[in-house]
Amino acid sequence: MKILYGVQATGNGHISRARAMGKYLTKAGVQVDYLFSGRPADQLFDMQQFGNYQLKRGLTFVTQNGKVNYWQSFWQAQIRTLQQDIKALDLSSYDLVLTDFEPVTAQAAKQQNKASFAIGHQYAFLHDIPMEHANLMSKLVFKHFAPAQYQLGLHWHHFNQPILPPIIDEAEHNAAVEANKVLVYLPFEDQQQVIAMLTPLSQYRFYLYGPGLSKAKLGHIHTHPPALQAFKADLASCSHVLSNAGFELISEALQLQKQIMVKPLHGQMEQESNALALQQLQLASRSNSLSTKIVANWLNTPANLNTVQYPNVASAICDWLLQDTPDSIAALSKSLWT
User: Fold this and answer.
1) Could you tell me if 188 and 66 are in contact, meaning their C-beta atoms sit under 8 angstroms apart?
2) Which pTM value belongs to this model?
3) Can you spell out the DSSP letters for 191-225?
4) Helix, strand, coil shares of the chain as percentages rounded to 5?
5) Structural domain of residue 321, as residue ranges?
6) 237: domain CATH number?
């Protein structure tokens, strides 16, 4: 079997899921080609696993100081280029297309009547799950941005819907958890403002990853540019995680039973809904703004460790895809949550 796997590259979570899925597809003898869109080539890192992948412009949202800038997003969108990329993508040599909310591969598969499967957190929003600030526009985006014949939504809970647990790219580790070590990942915030906010909290050691940062030690604050292995190691050994409300990092932190606080990206319905779900499930703390006092109060709160443990969803989906006649999505969902 030969598959084209389209991955939305605006966030690292989509890429992390592709890493996990790719391992099992390759192990099963599937030939997989990858197409990424939504981020310039010089902003991608640790991509060796994906071989000679394609890169397209796609579509993305522009963020500034923790908020979505819809005006800049509109002006930077190149719809004509997107349409040309969709039309030029030849799918004749592939048996099926996988898409993780990637529009070029999804729309090309639709136009060429190619078998297509979608896997990702965004597809959970096609069901009745906790949502905050949902409107007609957001619902249309989730439905039509990267559609497929079969759509597998992922979430931290089933909410009595046919959705699946998270796909987690777990790294092998034997790291002991270090008290007062805090992993900080707030890529949509001004990194210098984050450093200033954390500076007074000298009783904690912060490991801050973000765009534009260099590897440095500023007293009790360790800064680091985006990097896969170092980030995984610090995630494994930290006691607390402070981040925006993206899906994949929170999934990994839950699996590792970390104390979590999220600051959702303002104006981004998906992140605000993620934060709402975490509150309802009592899996993390939430703050719509950040300050030294807010972070200190969270860090000083007694630990309330969750007991979440998710199954190997990537392996299960791979087996399901390669069946001659796959069971229904509802059956797959039930088996995984059981």
Assistant:
1) yes
2) 0.92
3) HHHHHHHHTT-TTSEEEEE-TT--SEEETTEEEE-
4) 40, 20, 45
5) 2-168+311-337
6) 3.40.50.2000
